[in-house]
């Protein structure tokens, strides 16, 4: 036996005593662990990712909505800020005019023509500014009434200047005061139109949009409606002239009894919306009652029509030559034109006043009309 054979046997014997670990067989019966396939994310990770995507979408949606709301509110605020600037300057003119009627004197008369002319010019400039304002879509239909209100003020001042100057040069202060009163009523109509057809609808629209931080500017051109009455205007003329007017004795007064549209004979109702057929020349039959104790002559009857499509008021007039106490008389007045529209128009009808009349509450009426 060689050295190498002895060495080989020794190694073999050692293997028998301590066999290598790799040759031992496993006796464990633990089930093998299942590992997820490579390249496929766990379900938990997918759910987390999905939730993150949903949150991002919600945040993006809310951000877009917030941005749109912010832009809309900004547009509304810019619009009513521009309207408010025009209204503020216009009301300032009205305050100057009201001050003339509230504190008349011979000194005021010397500057009257210049002041009235300046007021008219200012209101013309304000009308141009009003027409240049671009309203948001939600307020376009109401913006026409805002512009119309400014245009009515221009029209009222245009007629008031010659009415006052003529009245100051005439001896019959009652007749002069009646004409001044008519023009002042036109100016007063601008306040009614603005409030009824612009301010209130815009306030409701802001409420529908759930916007509470923006307010529609209010407007008041004539400080006191009594300034538009003939009785007040007679007193104004007295003080501007520096002397009293001729006194009229007895009870005097006329009243507006009814207004009918011809040829249908439809009677207008001041308490509701009136649907009237449009025409190029409308005719109205105005009935007047003499509630006084004396026969009245040359009783004036005036009608004005204001529509969004034609904001410059149309004016027609007539006269009742004579009306005895407790008598009713009518006058047919034509010449107003109206186009079919779903918008509400304002029709103002007035009679008198007559010299010495004190109660003017029943001399006029305002009708809401929709022409079809």
| Number of helical segments with 4 or more residues | 6
Q: What kind of sheet is the major sheet?
A: 5 strands, mixed
The H-and-E topology, N to C, reads as HHHHHHEEEEEEEEE
User: In what order do the strands lie side by side in the largest sheet?
Assistant: 3-9-8-5-6
Ranges where pLDDT stays below 50 over 5 or more residues in a row are: 1-5, 11-17
What form results from the Cα inertia axes? elongated
Helix percentage: 40-55%
Strand element count: 9
Radius of gyration: 43 Å
Mean pLDDT: 84
Beginning-to-end CA distance, first to last residue = 136 Å
Structural class: alpha+beta
Number of domains: 2
Strand fraction equals 15-25%
Characterization of this structure:
With 372 residues, this protein is α+β, with helices and mostly antiparallel strands. The protein folds into two domains: 172 residues; 118 residues, Immunoglobulins (Immunoglobulin-like, Sandwich). The protein is built from six helices and nine strands. The strands form two sheets. Strands 3-9-8-5-6 form a five-stranded mixed beta sheet, covered by helices on one side. Helix 4 runs antiparallel to helix 5.
